[in-house]
Amino acid sequence: MGGEGPPLLLLHGCPQTHVMWHKLAPELAKTYTVVASDLRGYGDSSKPQGLPDHANYAFREMASDQLAVMKSFGFDRFYAIGHDRGARVLHRMALDHPQALEKLCLLDILPTGFLYAQTDKNFASRYWEWFFFIQESDFPETLLAANPLAFLRYEIGDLVDAGSITQPAWQEYLRVLSHKDAMHGMCEDYRAGVSIDLQQDEADSGKRIECPLLVLWATQNPIWLQFDMLDVWRGFARNVQGAAMPSGHYMAEEIPEKVLNKVLPFLGERRP
């Protein structure tokens, strides 16, 4: 937590932690009180044993965690930016607690149920985590925990080699993934994503994100070439704007200045 001004919550994605915001947070903290936390199951946050229905790793539960974090600092209403899994948590928060969000920015996602419904060979091959992590416990955990370094290298190693992900950030990601329960927490997140999260989304199929929404997506993610991204999001939110970004999936670390150039004007815009 740092900075001064209106509250701004930052939520990371997989396989990262709040550290992924280290290139953006100092600039954001010039005009916002920035709160960046680790999601349940990730980083240094708790990693409880998953329930049979995975409800304790549902996006609804994770959203409640983050609301409690913000309320602990006295913030009942705030701005928010989420990447990957963190963006999905914020999507659920926007449905369950619309009064909490002033404005919302989601980085490089489409809604979970929408993507599962579009599954084909291309999607299953590139989003392999969505199909491997969901296998019955402890099969994927056992394999992943046997060599967390190899897993992390496969996921983001090329960005370390290119210098987009710094060595201190890399070491932090590896440290937390080496925790004995880290792989279980990560897999439970995805198991919830393919089960209870889809059920809750279906139950709320008529709801829309009410606050202004900015969506940014990576041009180097070939999955997005199949869709009109803004058109899809207009089916899930009432007030949508966005842009394609010249980046891979991890844009907060790959092109931080370009992300800031989109996010800061959006957050600073005043409602009519």
Spatial ordering of strands, largest sheet: 1-3-2-4-5-6-7
What is the helix content?
40-55%
Major beta sheet, specifics? 7 strands, mixed
Q: Using the CA coordinates, give the radius of gyration.
A: 17 Å
Which regions have little confidence, pLDDT < 50, spanning 5+ residues?
none
Secondary structure class reads alpha/beta
Q: Proportion of β residues?
A: 5-15%
Mean pLDDT: 96
SSE ordering:
EEHEHEHEHHHHHHHHEHEHH
Helix segment count?
A: 14
Give the tally of β-strands. Answer: 7
> What is the CA–CA distance across the termini?
30 Å
Question: How would you describe what is shown here?
Answer:
It is a single chain. This protein has 272 residues and is of the alpha/beta class. It is 45% helix and 14% strand. It contains 14 helices and 7 strands. It has helices at residues 25-28, 59-72, 85-96, 112-117, 121-126, 129-132, 139-146, 148-162, 167-177, 182-193, 196-203, 229-234, 251-254, 256-268, and strands at 2-3, 7-11, 33-37, 78-83, 101-107, 213-218, 240-245. It has a 7-stranded mixed beta sheet, with helices on both faces. β4 (78-83), α3 and β5 (101-107) form a beta-alpha-beta unit. α2 crosses α3, α7 (139-146) crosses α10 (182-193) and α8 runs antiparallel to α9. It starts with a strand and ends with a helix.
In short:
Helices cover 45% and strands 14% of the residues. It has helices at 25-28, 59-72, 85-96, 112-117, 121-126, 129-132, 139-146, 148-162, 167-177, 182-193, 196-203, 229-234, 251-254, 256-268, and strands at residues 2-3, 7-11, 33-37, 78-83, 101-107, 213-218, 240-245.
